Amino acid sequence: MDSLYIYQNSYLVVFLFLLIGLLLPAVALGMGKLLRPSRPTEAKLTTYESGIDPFQDARVQFNVRYYLFALLFVIFDVETVFLYPWAVAYEKLGIFALIEMLIFVIMLMIGLIYAWKKKVLKWQ
Predict the structure, then answer these.
(1) How far apart are CA 58 and CA 91, in angstroms?
(2) 25 or 95: which carries more pLDDT confidence?
(3) Cβ contact 108:119 at 8 Å
(4) Cα separations (Å) of 73 from 28, 52, 66, 110, 121?
(5) pTM above 0.70, yes or no
(6) For the ranges 32-36, 79-83, 99-103, 104-108, which has the lowest average pLDDT?
(7) Which of 27, 46, 50, 86 is most buried, by the most CB atoms less than 10 A from its CB?
(8) Could you tell me which of 69, 76, 61, 70 has the C-alpha nearest to residue 123?
(9) Partners of 49 in the beta sheet?
(10) 6 CB neighbour count, 10 Å cutoff
(11) CB atoms within 10 A of CB 108
């Protein structure tokens, strides 16, 4: 019976944090809407682009290569995120962690070589 009370108390704490996490932004935004002055004019409702009046359509088509480079950047950026905890805990994990990380890096290198062979990295 005592453990049931502990579990219910844990769920109560999670529920309270969830409730506070939802109510706090809602109350802050609601109070801001009530307290701020509202005087919309035509100038305030126009699009703002760094102080310059908009002169063309905002939808611009980008070259697909930008997305490919961004995707490759994200892949290798995530690699560094995985390498950091491995480097910190290397002494505790031993040779097993070294082998795992070598497999991980080799897989990423295979992907980089594949992209290089397909000429994805060449800007035309």
Answers:
(1) 53
(2) 25
(3) no
(4) 37, 32, 11, 15, 11
(5) no
(6) 79-83
(7) 86
(8) 69
(9) 52
(10) 8
(11) 15
* The pLDDT value given to residue 122: 77
Smallest Cα–Cα separation from 106: which of 72, 73, 79, 74? 79
What mean pLDDT comes out for the span 23-31?
Answer: 96
Distance CA 33, CA 43 (A): 20
Q: How far apart are CA 99 and CA 23, in angstroms?
A: 48
Angle (deg, nearest 10), helices 95-117 and 64-88: 170
Scan for tokens 């992907």, then name that residue.
Answer: 111
Asked whether residue 115 carries a pLDDT value surpassing 60, the answer given is yes
The one-letter code for the residue type at 74 is V
As given in the structure block, the two tokens for residue 86 are 């491995």
DSSP string, 62-109: --HHHHHHHHHHHHHHHHHHHHHHHHHTHHHHTHHHHHHHHHHHHHHH
Q: Is 38 exposed, middle or buried (0-12, 13-18, 19+ CB in 10 A)?
A: exposed
